[in-house]
Amino acid sequence: QVQLVESGGGVVQAGGSLRLSCAASGRTVTPYTMAWFRQAPGKEREFVAAISWSGRETKYADSVKGRFTISRDNAKNTLYLQMHSLTPEDTAAYYCALQRNTFGSLLVDAPQYAYWGQGTQVTVSS
Asked: Is the dihedral of CA 43, 47, 49, 53 positive or negative?
């Protein structure tokens, strides 16, 4: 069983930056596609970004493209999300997720991911 623990959230002013981390334990995440999702109060969980097992392929939601960067360090078993030019619309709980099967595609649907962290809150003030 794999455990995912996010960190790095906080309160930031509009236009600011944050870097989220997701540390995995229990197994190596090297062969697995990983992703970030977010959920704002009263809204459904939405896809933010995904990264292939090698890190060479990435996919982003249109709303974050050009502002967010997903990356991973397989040697550290850690996933990252660098966020710039934050707006109040980015306020949400951010979750990292791991697919069930190895070498999967860059999927955007939450049910395709089997393992989830507990989330880290990002609040952007105007």
From this structure: positive
Q: Which two tokens stand for residue 14?
A: 């509009």
Length of the chain: 126
- SS3 state of residue 89: helix
Taking the C-alpha atoms of residue 60 and residue 69, their distance in angstroms, rounded to an integer, is 8
Alpha carbon distance 101, 19 (integer Å): 27
Per residue in 33-87, pLDDT (tens digit) is 999 999 999 999 999 999 999 999 999 999 999 999 999 999 999 999 999 999 9
Q: List the beta strands (DSSP E) in 58-116.
A: 58-60, 68-73, 78-83, 92-99, 113-116
Helix (H, G, I), strand (E, B) or coil at 70: strand
Neighbour count for residue 126 (Cβ, 10 Å): 8
